[in-house]
Amino acid sequence: MTIEQLITFLLIGIGLSFDSFAVSVSCGLMKREIRFQQACLVAFSLAFFQGTFPVIGWLIGTGVKNLISSFDHWIAFGLLIFIGIKMIIEGLKPNGRLQNFDPFRIRVLIGLSVATSIDALVVGLSFGFLDMPILFPVIVIGSVTFIASMLGMLFGKNIPAKRSHQSIVLGGIILALIGTKILFEHLFF
Question: Can you name one GO molecular function term for this protein (predicted)?
Fold first, then answer.
């Protein structure tokens, strides 16, 4: 593991965690009396799915890697750019009124966790295409998401909801830049 790989995995983890951060901020805004154990439950669920979905994507990606090895970097680039742009667009949408929902209901919590982890599935798919190891990135992604989610709930009690949208835009930019880096490395190095 090189320092460059570590930094890349940290940036991917940060980029992917912005959706979970935004959801956590919303939870903090709506449930200002949230207890530490409840916050841990929400953060764990978000981190668990965020860490599991890349493994599923990686398994799919490694299974079809030999069929697409000559253009896998273009697929990884396209997927990360697509996710990044999608996140930027979501972050730029005007703030709507937060719906009143209970993030502690298991159905709601799992729904939020899955919804914020779809991007992680695609990143895992890219890892599989590029034949990258998965264990360390998954640990990093899950850990970063847990921390970001806990901070999001804490900040949700103290910051305006508008900032959560700005964090999604930043996450999208980070993922798009990582996709560009992957393409650049495969084309020129």
Answer: manganese ion transmembrane transporter activity
With a cut of 80, say whether residue 67 has pLDDT above it. no
Residue 155 CA: distances (Å) to CA of 30, 125, 151: 12, 32, 6
Residues 104-133 have pLDDT tens digits of 888 888 888 888 888 888 889 888 888 888
How far is Cα 27 from Cα 29, in angstroms, rounded to an integer? 5
Domain boundaries, the chain: 3-188
Which one-letter DSSP state was computed for residue 98?
P
Reported as a pLDDT band with limits 50, 70 and 90, residue 98 is very low
Rounded distance, CA 35 to CA 70, Å? 51
Query: Distance between CA 150 and CA 40 in Å, rounded?
Result: 7
Instruction: Answer yes or no: are the C-beta atoms of 134 and 59 closer than 8 Å.
Output: no
Q: Let me know: does 126 contact 12? Beta carbons within 8 Å.
A: no
Eight-state DSSP code of residue 99 = P
> Cα–Cα distance between 134 and 51 in angstroms, integer?
10
